[in-house]
Amino acid sequence: MVMIPILTIQIQTDSEIESAIQAEQDAIPKKIESFQTIRTKAKFNLQNQAEKMKTMSADKYSNVGVRQNVRLRVPEIDRAKTDPNSIIAVVIDV
């Protein structure tokens, strides 16, 4: 038995085609506007987060002057098992 696929052809009028094209064209500016508002909100939120990070860092770490001793932590990846966890350094220039 041989099966023959049946094709259905939908005939659209010119007005239906034009209305479909117009609907797609109307949707594009709305999408662009949506992207722009999302990007604007994201930028605003990133700036707020950066400000919070800066204030937290300023509260946590005090200002360092020239010829002051400071302790610097050495990342675990940059040291061997016998190396110290931190080193003491002197600030020469700010």
DSSP helix count?
A: 1
From the helix content, strand content and strand pairing, which structural class follows?
Answer: mainly alpha
Helix content: 40-55%
The dominant shape is elongated
* Overall structural domain count: 2
Please report which band the strand proportion falls in: under 5%, 5-15%, 15-25%, 25-35%, 35-45% or over 45%. Answer: 5-15%
Describe this structure in words.
- With 94 residues, the chain is mainly alpha-helical.
- It has 2 domains: 14-61; 62-94, no CATH class.
- The protein is built from 1 helix and 2 strands.
- It has one helix at residues 14-60, and strands spanning 69-73, 86-90.
- The protein has a two-stranded antiparallel sheet with strand order 1-2.
- It is elongated.
- The termini are far apart.
Keywords:
single chain; 94 residues; mainly alpha; two-stranded antiparallel ribbon
